[in-house]
# Entry
Amino acid sequence: WLPKAHVEAPIAGSMVLAAVLLKLGGYGIIRMTPTNISTALIYPTIAMATWGIIMTGLTCLRKTDLKALIAYSSVGHMGLVASATLIQTPWSTSGAVILMVAHGLTSSMLFCLANMLYERTSTRMLIAMRGMQKAMPLMTSYWLIASLTNLALPPTINLIGEIQIMTTLFNWSPLTIMMTATGAAITAIYSLQMFMTSQQGHLTKDSKEIYPAQTRELLIMILHALPILLLTLDSELIN
# Structure
């Protein structure tokens, strides 16, 4: 239901859902999961969560709806968080909190950028949004920041959270590295594909009269990008 809620909600609902409500769910798991939880529940739950990372990534590779692509990407990242919270070690909990904060900013930024393109093109199809770099070159820089943080480019805060979670999962069970590493590779592929498809190429005939970014839109992007930059420079700010 989560991707459907993301896609059908207005832009404000999508941003709040990705940045706040999903993180409340992760916080609830951290607070409510007892430290002596039965392994009979941990093993199948983590297996489903890590397998879901790959499944949502493969779904993103074939999505043509930009908002649906971002929604499924959000679900895949929260699969890492769910896996880490169930292990209940200090390292895994720290990684889950870091990734939740980083993903909340990144996912909200991507949804906002997607809505800006939708307002100008009246479509969410990626193929109809190509060439936006020529129409809105300043917004392309924010698309690049959001795409690179989404794929956890070093030294962003997203990478710190993912590395902590992947290390914890590997120490818990070495088999999980196959799922998490594959999921990370797929995330990099569809994130770059999303950026290249929407920003590169030639403008369509219907996109010739696209108006540039407005001040309020640039301010929203700055308010997303600035915390990401500050947390990348000093991750201790989360504490």
